[in-house]
Design brief:
two-stranded antiparallel ribbon; 1 helix; 11% helix; elongated
Length: 131
């Protein structure tokens, strides 16, 4: 009976595990191709799965994860195109010139797999949230 109770508790723990984050970038930045965008203002990080120093989200448990990201070019000349990468693979892309664009996707990640937002091309400019 003790083993059954432990297994049931483990299933309940997995079912109630919560993870999510909301982060944004302050100011204008330019990035080299494929470099992770490190969102410097983390407003929420339930489960501590987002690392603002690396820009990586690491799945703490197997599950279905939804990602949404928006970007705006810094000005009329510089575009701000970015990818959403899951396990190093480009899975969503937004490209804009002086407009705002949003990308999103839902992906099954195994525990330890990662996601990040990365610049598309060298010296792409990304406009952060101005406070």
């Amino acid at each position: 009976i003790d083993l059954q109770q432990q297994q049931l508790q483990q299933q309940n723990d997995k079912a109630t595990y919560q993870v999510g984050f909301y982060a944004r970038l302050n100011g204008n930045h330019h990035y080299r191709s494929n470099n992770a965008i490190k969102f410097d203002q983390v407003l929420s990080n339930v489960g501590s799965a987002y690392d603002q120093h690396t820009g990586l989200f690491t799945a703490p448990v197997n599950g279905l994860y939804a990602f949404a990201f928006s970007t705006k070019a810094a000005d009329l000349i510089h575009k701000g195109s970015v990818y959403l990468k899951v396990n190093g693979q480009n899975v969503a892309f937004v490209d804009n010139v002086n407009t705002m664009a949003t990308g999103h996707g839902v992906f099954h990640l195994l525990k330890g797999q990662t996601a990040l937002v990365a610049a598309n091309a060298n010296n792409d400019y990304v406009n952060g949230y101005d406070t």
